[in-house]
Amino acid sequence: MIKIRTVGVIGAGQMGNGIAHVSATSGLSVVMLDVAEDALAKAIATIGKNLDRQVTKGALTAEAKAEALARITTTTDYAGLTTCDMVIEAATEREAVKHQIFKTLVPHLAPHALIASNTSSISITRLAAGTDRPERFIGMHFMNPVPVMKLVEIIRGIATSDDTYHATEALAATLGKITATAQDFPGFIVNRILMPMINEAIYALYEGVGNVLSIDTGLKLGANHPMGPLELADFIGLDTCLAIMQVLHEGMGDSKYRPCPLLVKYVEAGWLGRKSGRGFYDYSLTPPKPTR
Ligand code: NAD
User: Fold this and answer.
1) Which of 84, 124, 193, 234 suits a disulfide with 8, CB 3.0-4.6 Å?
2) Which tens digit of pLDDT belongs to each residue from 114-138?
3) Pocket-forming residues, ligand 1, beta carbon under 6 Å
4) In terms of CATH architecture, what is 6-183?
5) 97 CA to middle of ligand 1, Å?
6) What pTM does this model have?
């Protein structure tokens, strides 16, 4: 079984920077790649801020923070990924984007290297089929925010080998995570169950059953959820929520998964939640103000 010492992370957004963060604090070398130079600079700044928070809380020493940051390098050039034992893709949730990334990545990979996708919902088997190594391809679905959330959902494509699966489980353990294994069906386990609930909350808003505050308060206090579904949707990113609903809808061919038109409208408006400053809440105000 291969031992993973150097990890590549493709996509330096909210998930990519979290994966780089936990990999570096777990002693692994990290090469982070993005198409956008400014995304890389922003990711390093975010990782620095999140490490500072851990130092303040006493969870990390200042020395360990400096060592973790020193283990992360950034690049926009795929040639920087040749030393990686595993490359974890965490770019935008669009299948065409991911296929293009894997096509560009493969010629630069060491023969033994594994590929993981952090996709929330796209078929691992289909993504793997576009590479030269379907048996060394797996789904590694981290939760947001990565440094805080304990779970990694591991998804086996139809061709994923036992060695790849065990190496991925070992990597998750090195990162201090607990795993749940899912078979490769749309949405896997977590989003198959979570996303229809979020979509239903948006339907309840759309149909005027309740406003943002009453829906979120209802689920927080009535079902003991730590965050309301609309607050959680904003946290995940409304574009990501829509992309996952589309995958469930198309993949299952069942109308019960149709994305709510209000979700579509918000994404069309560029109201993507926290990351764009506005979604079901307006984040320019403290505390964030419900928009409906
Ligand atoms: P994000 O929008 O914060 O970041 C995406 C990043 O990908 C951006 O920095 C963008 O510049 C980069 N990117 C886009 N095209 C690229 C390309 N061709 N090559 C390299 N980089 C490229 O998105 P995110 O929330 O970090 O989501 C990333 C992935 O993680 C998606 O597949 C998503 O489904 C999955 N995911 C998200 C969450 C969540 O809660 N947001 C949770 C689990 C998994």
Assistant:
1) 84
2) 999 999 889 999 999 999 999 999 9
3) 10-16, 34-36, 39, 90-93, 97, 101, 118-120, 141-142, 144, 236-237, 240, 275
4) 3-Layer(aba) Sandwich (3.40)
5) 10
6) 0.91
